[in-house]
Amino acid sequence: MKSKGIVYKIMIKHIGMKWRLFTVCILLILSASSEVKAQKLIADTTGLTIGQQINLTLEITVEKGEKVQWPALLDTLTKSVEIVRRSAVDSMVDAASGAKTYRQNLAITSFDTGFHVVPPVAFRVLSPGTSDFTTKETAPFLLSVSGVAVDMEAEIKDLKPVLEAPYTLRDFLPWILLLLAVALLAVLGWFYYQSRKKNKPLIKLTLRQPKPAHLIALEQLELLKSEQLWQKGQIKDYYSRLTDILRSYFELRFKVSAVEMTSDEIISSMKDVLSDAQRLNDLKKILSLADMAKFAKARPLGADNELSHTLAVAIVNSTKPAPELNPENKISASESASEITKTEN
């Protein structure tokens, strides 16, 4: 009796499934037999294998002047039918009637076997001269999802072995970089050993010698002369620049804070440096004319302005350091002198 009850339950279950399937088919036939709609949801096939992807075309045609509110589809059409990807909405206008067709392509899939009803998709259309939207729906259709055919009588096969990927340059790149690093360290170690052996630095840095103070001063004096400030009536600026050049030169050349000194303090500090009394008097004259031009608003003659520049150049040239003889030049000079002596002998 127990087995008969189980058989009855299975029969009732199958009869219920067939009745539901029959009802769905009747509804789809009734919807398909109605008038041809301007809105469509067309599938390239209604049967697919589980996990397979098929294409849907969502389309609507409206009259000239009508506006369409496109349906906001999520990532599923039903709980068993998923949207994998979608294209942008494209449009095309009929030149004769002015009607406009909107179209979007969808890719769908399902991982649930059986029959699934894809429900209608609703558009909202606004006609000219009205403020209310009209809802237009596509016809539903039935989607059949079948499972993968499995031969139950076939021999059970073992799992396939893991495939070995071919070697690429990326696989060897870390080892190549390691070898290059080891080679570089070996070369640097050899150079370090050789330099230590010869008591020389590993890397010889060539230090750039700073420009001598007298060359800087002479360049600035030449630039001041070319600007012709006093010829343009800028007497105060001319003497300010001239004395600033001398102050900076004294500070770099003799290490005195001439920039912060008054004219009398500069003369006092330069007495021991300017051994020539004439050059000290020249400095006094320059500073005196500069103070008169800057503070008393005096306007020295053009000849005095030219003379101040000339005296400043003379002061720099007379106080610049004596040129150092290159030891190689000394050797060559002594060698040439010995050769002359040998020739005379």
CATH architectural type of the largest domain: Sandwich
Structural class: alpha+beta
Low-confidence stretches: 1-16, 27-36, 327-345
The H-and-E topology, N to C, reads as HEEEEEEEEEEEHHHHHHH
Q: Give the helix level as a range of percent.
A: 40-55%
Arithmetic mean pLDDT = 80
**Largest sheet, if any?**
5 strands, antiparallel
Question: What's the number of structural domains?
Answer: 3
Brief descriptors of the model:
about 350 residues; alpha+beta; Immunoglobulin-like; 3 domains; five-stranded antiparallel β-sheet; three-stranded mixed β-sheet; 8 helices; disordered N terminus; disordered C terminus
Structural overview:
This protein is α+β, with helices and mostly antiparallel strands and 345 residues long. It has three domains: 1-34; 35-146, Immunoglobulin-like, CATH 2.60.40; 213-319, no CATH class. The protein has helices spanning 2-33, 169-197, 213-227, 235-254, 263-269, 277-295, 302-319, 327-344, and strands at 39-43, 47-49, 53-62, 67-69, 82-86, 90-93, 100-109, 114-118, 122-126, 133-137, 141-146. Strands 1, 3, 5, 6 and 7 form a five-stranded antiparallel β-sheet that branches. A hairpin with a 6-residue loop joins strand 9 (122-126) and strand 10. Helix 3 runs antiparallel to helix 4 (235-254) and helix 4 (235-254) packs across helix 6 (277-295). It is elongated and about 120 Å long. The termini are far apart.
Task: Summarize this entry quickly.
By secondary structure, this protein is of the alpha+beta class. It has 3 domains: 1-34; 35-146, Immunoglobulin-like (Sandwich), CATH 2.60.40.740; 213-319, no CATH class. The protein contains 8 helices and 11 strands.
